[in-house]
Write a structure and sequence with these properties.
Number of helices: 11
Number of strands: 8
Radius of gyration: 19 Å
Structural class: alpha/beta
């Protein structure tokens, strides 16, 4: 099949942001009725979960002409076959080459109501791994806020778009020890941060970048800057206080002299 990527679609043909949001909600809801657990992740999920801060997103120039390029989902591996059939019935197609390369870990679909839909199964395994075992029922239509944050924090070469997403997410939500409209501090343990020095190093490095960038943006009010800084500092203090495993301590002695993350193949 001919794959038409979002970048190839002229702006006059490109779906409006509202179409992406509606399609994401529809796919999650209809999948649920079929007994399939599907959750939105990525920048769109942060947008959905932080609607009251849409103005801040716009002030940060996070929303360009093509606001969203795709919809990123995560699901349980046990639902892989059911979701594969369901998404195709919704008018999306995939390429056998992608099935061969990624079929067990993710599905990539094209050409439906939005240009591209991607489903990851059981975990997001990129530079570092974010597992989702028993976590997808916690929130809807998105993954829990803690996992939304960790998806961004795991990026070693984080870009400014991801930092802006994190600023909005952290500004919009308090930090705590539960998942209800809070960034759950327990997520650092869920993903294995205290047993994996590399994960710890990437996450803490990126949290410090979030604080630095937030304080440099004139688009943020003084109150915005203070709240983001306070919440990031609370997370960093929590991470620092937690006991680290023997494995973590031994790996910390090597530091960045050897690669501390998994390289990501750009399909």
């Amino acid at each position: 099949m001919t794959v038409r990527l979002p970048v190839d679609i002229p702006i006059e043909e490109y779906p409006k942001p509202e179409v992406f949001i509606d399609e994401a909600a529809t796919l999650v809801e209809e999948a649920g009725k079929l007994g399939l657990t599907l959750r939105v992740m990525g920048g769109m999920a942060i947008f959905i979960h932080s609607k009251e801060y849409e103005t801040l997103w716009r002030n940060l120039e996070r929303l360009g002409k093509k606001v969203f390029t795709d919809i990123d989902f995560v699901a349980y591996g046990k639902d892989r076959n059911g979701l594969y059939d369901y998404i195709q019935r919704k008018g999306y197609k995939t390429d056998p080459r992608f099935l061969y390369q990624f079929g067990k870990t993710r599905h990539i679909f094209f050409g439906g109501r939005v240009p591209m839909v991607e489903i990851f199964y059981d975990q997001l395994a990129m530079n570092h791994t974010v597992p989702y075992k028993d976590r997808l029922e916690v929130d809807a239509p998105t993954t829990p806020l803690g996992e939304l944050m960790m998806q961004k924090l795991q990026v070693v070469k984080i870009n400014e778009k991801d930092i802006k997403d994190l600023i909005v997410l952290i500004r919009a939500h308090e930090v705590g020890t539960h998942d209800t409209e809070h960034i759950n501090l327990k997520v650092f343990n869920f993903v294995g941060l205290f047993n994996d020095w590399g994960w710890w190093y990437t996450a803490t490095t990126n949290l410090n970048k979030v604080k630095m960038f937030a304080n440099s943006y004139p688009q943020l009010s003084q109150e915005d800057k203070e709240i983001v800084t306070r919440r990031v500092d609370r997370m960093l203090a929590h991470i620092e206080e937690q006991p680290k495993s023997f494995k973590w301590k031994m790996r910390s002695k090597v530091g960045t002299r050897t690669m501390w993350y998994n390289p990501v193949e750009d399909w």
